[in-house]
Amino acid sequence: MARKAGSRTIMPFPMRVRERAWQAMRTLRGFDIGQLMSVAEIERSNATKFVRALARAGYLRMVCPANGRRGQSASYRLLRDTGPRAPVLRIDGGVYDPNTGTVHQRAEPFFERFVLRPGGRPS
Q1: Which residues pair with 122 in a beta bridge?
Q2: Strand 88-89, strand 95-97: pairing
Q3: H or E element in which residue 34 lies
Q4: What is the tens place of the pLDDT at every residue in 8-21?
Q5: What is the DSSP string of 59-104?
Q6: pLDDT for 110
């Protein structure tokens, strides 16, 4: 079928890398960084940053930590599937969820709770 004169073909925008990673997480439910890299076609550094931020915000839980052997990375499970749109990492360390319109602040790790005094002891 021929197009009308003057009409344009509208190409949908390709999915961004973290959107592909989010869709892969929703599909797999349980995964490690290697699986996420192969399914979502994402680089290791980007996948690791995204996974760690989502884990700190409570979207993911580490099921099995890395055991130090080569090729054995930590495995994660998706806890909070809020919808099809990928969460967005914020500069302040929080995560914005466009599906719910909420911002999840970064959970404070245990070691950041203590402030060291000049002598090296926790306050």
Answers
A1: 116
A2: antiparallel
A3: helix 33-40
A4: 655 556 679 999 99
A5: SEEEEE---SSTT---EEEE-----SSPPEE-TTS-EEETTTTEEE
A6: 41
